[in-house]
Amino acid sequence: MPVIRSFILCLTVVCILLMIAPHAVADGAKSKTTAWQSSLVCTVMPVVGSIVLLSNGDVDGSACTAAGVGLGSLGFLCGPGVGHLYAKNGDAFAKGVFIRGVGGALLVYSISKFEINIFGNSDDDNALPALGILLGAATVVGSAIHDIRTSTKSVEQYNQQHGFSQIEVRPCYFANYETAGLLLSMRF
């Protein structure tokens, strides 16, 4: 058990450092790759850590269970927006956190109202709580995917607002010369 706690502690420290590190970079051109990768890592690592904690915790509410739920919730709530913070777009980060928070609240409330009877007969109708669970989960996951994918747009906006040019090299076919080549384009 101490090994698992040490692992989770290290995982949490790495996630915190990954969330803070992009902001320590000097104000230069931002990288799209860094934005989406930091969002993805800061989402996945806490969720994996929470799965490890939950698999080692007791069902009766042990410290591992509480830490696992907290770490996973933090990962899903804040992790996807880290790329927006990297691009200094706090509004997009806050909007995503709010949407995932509302979806998570709906999910937790609906789970608390869902009745499972081991004998197969239920006195209550589970259709509304099941719909709430579905909508809550879809909202959380959909918002997380949206934030991870749109973090590159925040980087583009940042670079454009601060006057950083974008240079792009891509393969191209030149019909006039009937040959393939590379096209260099620059945007200001």
Question: What characteristics describe this protein?
Answer:
single chain, 188 residues, mainly alpha, two-stranded antiparallel ribbon, 2 strands, 68% helix, elongated
Give the topology, please.
Layout: H1 2-24, H2 32-56, H3 63-78, H4 82-86, H5 90-113, H6 127-161, E1 166-174, E2 179-187
Antiparallel strand pairs: 1-2
Helix pairs in contact: 1-2, 2-3, 2-6, 5-6
Please give a structural write-up.
- With 188 residues, the chain is mainly α.
- The chain has one domain (2-187).
- The protein contains 6 helices and 2 strands.
- The protein has helices spanning 2-24, 32-56, 63-78, 82-86, 90-113, 127-161; strands at 166-174, 179-187.
- It has a two-stranded antiparallel ribbon with strand order 1-2.
- Strand 1 and strand 2 (179-187) form a beta hairpin.
- Helix 1 (2-24) packs antiparallel against helix 2, helix 2 (32-56) runs antiparallel to helix 3 (63-78) and helix 5 (90-113) packs antiparallel against helix 6 (127-161).
- It is elongated and about 75 Å long.
Write a short abstract of this structure.
With 188 residues, the protein is mainly alpha-helical. Helix content is 68%, strand content 10%. It has one domain.
